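Hi everyone,

Forwarding the result from last night's run.
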Amino acid sequence: MCARVLSPLHSQDASGSFGGITYSNTSSGASAKRKPNPGDKMDVVRPRIRSILGWVSRIWATLTTLQMESWDEWAANHPQPDVFGNPFIMSGDNAHMQLNHTAVRLWGAGSENALPPEDPPVSSLDTFTAATGITNPGDCDLTWTELGTGIAADAWEIQIAGPFQSVGRRAVISRFRYQVKVAGNVLLATIADLNEGQWYWFRCRYVALDGQTTAWLYQQATPMLTP
């Protein structure tokens, strides 16, 4: 729809929509507004998340009563932290959804499990560091140490938040997005093609092939500058 203009465009009398901008004139005054375009997360990530959720929920509906009960038992013995850090007990279907969603997200369809895991992950994250890269401009180098012995079938999941204009005191949890999956027996990674002069938060955790995860550790760094 084109804007109806009583005086030249951009006057206080313009109304309607033009070029993605909606002009209005109310008792509180004239305004021009543009609706925000959906970001990459809404365009790409959220549909994939919903697709995996639907896939895993349909698998849950095919399980036997004994299989569902085994997930109930696993959930009862593996309390999870809520948003305030207090433990709570998931239902069996939520436990099934949580682990299998992670497995399918990282390894694809066919990675889901009908039964809960019998053992905890073989490894966990001990220390995690992020530093300015030393090879190419735009690089940040990540290194970590582990407790236990990681196996190649599992993974270290790395997520990223940024770029930010300056160093931050705390990580913005809601801003993190998937960056890379590193084999579970490797303890380093280089994240390339970052914005020079900007700051990034990184976080890392160990993910077992069955979808079990360890706690995140967080660090921040700024990439290597062009000489």
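The helical segments are 40-61, 65-76, 92-107.

Cheers,
N.
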